[in-house]
Amino acid sequence: MRTGNLFENADPPAEGERFDTLLDHRKLQVERILSSAMPDATEYVQPQDEWVALLRGAATLEVSGARVELKAGDSLFLPALTPHRVVETSSGALWLAVHLHP
Length: 102
What we know:
This protein has no helices and eight strands. By secondary structure, it is mainly β. The chain has a domain at 40-100: Jelly Rolls, CATH 2.60.120.10.
């Protein structure tokens, strides 16, 4: 049995985001994402569904052209092929992302 703590070793990177895979099992992938105050503005259009929960901090995303504001405790479902990008985050924002691959 393997255990872990989402808040250990959770210092944010100086720039961009850090992606840590917590679980990769069959079609399911769970990631912890740590954001700096200067996130990458990469637009994602992923082939898999994604559900994200913001556990700490605040963030603004652009999803299909619309701005979405998130605060700690908020979650968001992003269906496959939905264009999205992180516009801004508070330093140390901590996310949990669940990907369900086709």
